[in-house]
Specification:
The protein has five helices and no strands. Helix 2 (19-26) crosses helix 3. It has 70 residues and is an all-alpha fold. The longest helix is centred in the first third of the chain and has 13 residues, at 2-14. The mean pLDDT is 95. The protein has helices at residues 2-14, 19-26, 30-37, 45-55, 59-63. The radius of gyration is 11 Å and the shape is globular.
Length: 70
């Protein structure tokens, strides 16, 4: 899911957060979060929901099914 990784990184940078900061806010390790941004792993559905809620976007936007955020 390359689109997911790219959008996740873009959203984090828009909030001017480090990977460690966002990982802490989501309750995951920095390594887990970094793997998501690098496209090596994907979060479970629970984490997808938390990410979408935190960044105020739809899950469809996160995974590249839609190009508008909501």
């Amino acid at each position: 899911m390359i689109v997911f990784a790219e959008r996740l990184k873009e959203l984090r940078k828009e909030k001017d957060l480090t990977q460690k900061e966002i990982a802490n806010k989501l309750g995951v390790s920095r390594v887990a979060y970094t793997n998501w941004e690098n496209g090596k792993r994907e979060p479970n559905i629970e984490r997808f929901v938390k990410l979408a809620d935190y960044f105020n976007v739809s899950i469809d936007y996160l995974v590249g099914r839609k190009n508008h955020r909501k």
